[in-house]
Amino acid sequence: MGRSLLSSTVLPVRFPQIPKSIPPFNRSIHPIPPTFAPNYQRIRGFSIPTKTFCTKAVLSESPNPKRYPKMGSDSVGPIPPSQLIQVVEHAANTGAQVVMEAVNKPRNVTYKGLTDLVTDTDKMSEAAILEVVRKNFGDHLILGEEGGLIGDTSSDYLWCIDPLDGTTNFAHCYPSFAVSVGVLFRGKPAAAAVVEFVGGPMCWNTRIFSATTGGGAFCNGQKIHASQTDLVEQSLLVTGFGYEHDDAWTTNIDLFKEFTDVSRGVRRLGAAAVDMCHVALGIVEAYWEYRLKPWDMAAGVLIVEEAGGTVTCMDGGKFCVFDRSVLVSNGVLHSKLLERIGPATEKLKKKGIDFSLWYKPENYNTDF
């Protein structure tokens, strides 16, 4: 398929292979007539039918869902939103072009840990993204997964860059990986772009998700919205597992089992930015994970919130990108999911598991 050459200007790169936007997926469910509704029994906080298939449950009744505090920035700061998002999208597309050029070629894989991979493509993608950011905003602070912290911590802006989210999937040509670029203004998400790779070997393609605070969320330029599914039993959920098989990992295995029993399924795709964009797109209802890093979350959480979803920590507390847990949902299910996820997380805290902020640059000014 065709490729675009890297542009030397600051205009966004456009891939000829990006498809036209598809209207957001609508999984409308016809209500089951009351005459078919059976008796229910409660199992671990959820209600399931005892006779016939029916998904209405006591736990999922949420006529007045709780409101959670907004975690995005109140503004993008002194930079015009259109200018900021143009550079954010250009940076993400530039990194994605590097990945696209490598996607069908042999990988040179090295290891950060026993199973934590890194490839030359991760490093090349980050270098290309950094070049775009520096040309446009040379005084901004940058936190990259591969290169660490670069720049002046007195800046109000912090770029959180994951040049290849889902490296293990990329190494295996498994289609769930992305390039993620999020910008914080005084510590809160202000602009975001995620380029997701879709398809598979011999038919790779991309789509770009983007958002600015207060400006809505978009996929390939078309506005998107989280689903309106209000029943856990009718929900498709997503989670993730880190490389450390510790108490948090074990707790999430239990949550995985719990929600598999009472939902339409729990998926584990292996790329946090992609998972969150799927919540924003309305094709899954929620995603949660412990121990993510700022570069994993900075873009995705804003895209979810701007798509009408809700973002908190896994104990239900107010979220920031330096937190060690995240739950994103379509909003209407958030309280119901927290009925199980919240207490499990509180138990971890009582065990002494560290949930303090991490990877926050020293002396970086924030509004929280």
Q: Helix share of residues?
A: 25-40%
DSSP strand count: 17
Mean pLDDT: 86
Major β-sheet, in short?
A: 8 strands, mixed
Tell the overall outline. Answer: globular
The helix-and-strand class reads alpha+beta
H and E order: EEHEEHEEEHEEEEEEHEHEHEEH
In DSSP terms (H or I, runs of 4 or more residues), the helix count works out at: 7
Low-confidence stretches: 1-62
For the largest sheet, list the strands in their spatial order.
6-5-7-8-9-10-11-12
Binned strand content: 15-25%
Distance between the termini: 46 Å
Radius of gyration: 20 Å
Could you please describe the fold and organization of this structure?
- The protein has 368 residues and is α+β, with helices and mostly antiparallel strands.
- Helix content is 27%, strand content 23%.
- It contains seven helices and 17 strands.
- A hairpin with a 6-residue loop joins β9 and β10 (205-212).
- α4 (247-262) packs antiparallel against α7.
